[in-house]
Each structure stands twice: as structure tokens, then as C-alpha cells.
Amino acid sequence: MSPSDSSAGPAPRLSVVIATYNRLPLITRLLQQLAGQTLPPEDFEVVVVDDGSATDVKGPLLALKLPYTLRVEVQQNAGAAAARHRGVLAARGTTVLVTDDDMQVASDFLARHLTHHPPGSRNVVLGRISPDPEIGEMPLFERWYAHLNNRMAEELSVPGAKARGNHLYTGNVSFPRADYVGVGGFDKTLGQSEDVELGVRLEKAGCAFLFAPDAYVLHGSDHVSFEKWIRRAHRYGMFDTHVSVKHPDVKGVNPWRLFFETNLLSRPLLASAVVAPEASRKLTEAVVKASTVADKLGLTGAAFAGTSVAYGMEYLRGARTEAGGWRGVAKGVARYLQGRGNPQG
């Protein structure tokens, strides 16, 4: 029988926190994979927070026969940041690992994370997010996202490379619970980029960031809507503006960095999205169509390059919207160009 929904007994070494929303089959798959871990089941617990799914999640999950303690929290839909925050506060382990409900994990996943948290350390461990073997069947924008994850992993794997706070992502990360609570946890007012903003505060508080390719997850996706993807790009631009205002000394969270770090040939298109946000949408649509054609022709590099431009245009539209006018844009660009304080990325 599973010790599900029990908090009796000594605190475990590790708490796994997973927010879920309308993904009962996927979260069930992950919980079953966690049942096969090499880490003894008494050494960890799993806290699932159902963020207002349309159908019952708690009942079916607690009916699973699992060897570890499982607790399921239920809340009205409030977003991933609020759900993960609730889960971390409910966690009893000294180390917390956050992952997503659509991930798959190897049997030594938890053990590998714990090896990077020796006694007395204050490490934030970023595990690798590797693409599902079926990545080729996914939409172009999801394959592009996997490409970005791989590129970042390669950059952080170079000898001497240093992971920073603005690299934090919630798909595969572990940290001391005390440090999370100490900095106040996720900023629940942020609809996107709450992970990056948390990472900045953890680094400012003295935590060390480590990239651990051995503690990997496999990421598939059930996202099939291009419209939702492009809206998410807009939201990232908006909320990164908030993060930049909150941390003006951190160059790596400034949304306008995207313009300056992009290939020179792409900058006119990005600029058009800022100068004429609505009129330039036809240009974005043309870039998307060209990327789709390139993808069908097997020109993967060109397809990814075009997808990056389309994303960047919508992202900067979001930043332009949140800036509230040219004065706000000028202030944001000036903050980037001044490059004050810690560049972080």
C-alpha cells in the first residue's frame, strides 16, 4: 500500500514538487517513474499541487500504489508560480526538487540531484532538459524550444562556463528549501519569468548555481497551438519588463538585450515590431510561413532561425506594450546599454 497523503514520520532528505493542470495521464506517468528510483523511498516525498484542473486529480493519484509518500494539494486555478510556491511551502525535505508534469525521468534521477547537495552547501542545481525521442513528431515551435534547451546545455557544459541566476528554469531544478523561503519564493504577480526572477534573488542571496547534465529529464510536449505559443512570447516580453525594473542591475533579464544580441540581419525585423507593433504583424506572419516551408524542405537551421525571429518580434511587442510608450522603451534600452552591476548572462 502507498503511504500517500501522509506527513507522519521523520522529514525526508528530498521533496519533489510538481504543479499540474489538466494532465492526469502525464502526471500519473511521472509518479510511476518516480516509484522506480534508486533513492530509497523513505528518503523522499512527492508533493503534487493541482492548479484547478477541470476533473478530479487528487482521487486518482492517491489511489496509485506507490512506495513513497505522496501528498496532493488542490487549489483554484492561480497559475504555475502560485502552485509551485504552495508545493514548496508544504514540502518537508531540506532539499526541494521542482519539475514539470510532462517530464520523464531515469531511475537515478533523484539520487543524482542529491549528490550535488553535499552537507552545508547552498547549491541551486539546474538539471539538463533533454528532448523526448519523439521530438521529431512535435510542432516546429516545440522543436525550436528543445533546440534552445540543447544549445544552453552545451554552453553551460563548456569548461569554465558558469551557470547564473537568470538561467533558472522550473522544468528541472533543485535547491535548499531554506534558501527558497529566505528570499520569499516565487513572485506570484509574475505571469511568466517567475523562475528567472527567483534565480536572480537566490544568486544575490549567496547561492551557487551548478549545471548538472547527469541529472536529466526527458521533455515531451502536448502543446500543439501556435497561437498559444505566440501569445506566450508576448507575455514573456511583458513580464521580463517587470523583472528588469525589479532588478535594474542585472543586464541578463533586460528584455531589450534580445535586440542587441540578435544577428544583425534580423534586427530590422525586430525593430519593426517595436516601431510599428500592429503594422508589422504581416511581416511576422511572413517569417512564420517561410520557416514552415523551410521546415518541410528539411532546412532545419533556416526553420529554427526564422522561428527565433518570429518569437523575438512578438516578444519585443510585449516589451513595447509594457513599456507604455517611447519614454519607457528608452529607459529600458538605457538600462541595458549602461550594463550596470552584475551582467548575469
UniProtKB/TrEMBL annotation:
Glycosyltransferase 2-like domain: residues covered: 15-144
Domain of life: Bacteria
SUPFAM superfamilies (UniProt xref): Nucleotide-diphospho-sugar transferases (SSF53448)
Regions that span the bilayer: none
Record-linked Gene3D superfamilies: Spore Coat Polysaccharide Biosynthesis Protein SpsA, Chain A
Protein name (record): Glycosyltransferase 2-like domain-containing protein
Organism: Corallococcus caeni
Lineage summary: Bacteria, Pseudomonadati, Myxococcota, Myxococcia, Myxococcales
